[in-house]
């Protein structure tokens, strides 16, 4: 296996939104990613500006695990964690 992607499950069993799911046949809008880190690993805060809106809203945090210079895992966390990263809910 070259890479692994995982999603966290929110309380109540709802899965978080992922970039892969959002980029299906019907795109949801424009994305903006902000570099951050989690547990000494690189991460990206994903913001989405839905079609017809002017504001980018917090969507998810992707934590990247890199080994030997290669991306091997992406774990996605829901937007409720943005405050823990010191990130605003909108851009």
Structure description:
This protein has one helix spanning 19-22; strands at residues 4-7, 29-38, 41-50, 57-67, 70-78. With 91 residues, the protein is mainly β. The chain has one domain (4-85). It has a five-stranded mixed β-sheet, with no helix packed on it. The chain is globular and about 40 Å long.
Major sheet strand order: 1-5-4-3-2
The average pLDDT is: 79
Note the overall shape.
Answer: globular
Whole-Å distance between the termini? 36 Å
Number of domains: 1
By secondary-structure content and strand pairing, the structural class works out as mainly beta
Run of helices and strands: EHEEEE
Nearest-angstrom radius of gyration?
13 Å
Question: Main beta sheet: strand number and arrangement?
Answer: 5 strands, mixed
Number of helices: 1
- Tally the beta strands: 5
**Low-pLDDT ranges:** 9-20
> How much of the sequence is in beta strands?
over 45%
Question: Roughly how much helix do the residues carry, as a percent range?
Answer: under 10%
């Amino acid at each position: 296996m070259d890479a692994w992607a995982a999603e966290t499950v929110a309380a109540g069993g709802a899965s978080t939104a992922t970039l892969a799911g959002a980029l299906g046949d019907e795109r949801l809008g424009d994305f903006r990613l902000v570099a951050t880190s989690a547990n000494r690993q690189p991460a990206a805060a994903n913001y989405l500006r839905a079609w017809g809106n002017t504001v980018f809203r917090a969507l998810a945090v992707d934590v990247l695990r890199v080994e030997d210079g290669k991306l091997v895992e992406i774990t996605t966390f829901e937007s409720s964690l943005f405050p823990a990263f010191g990130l605003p809910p909108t851009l």
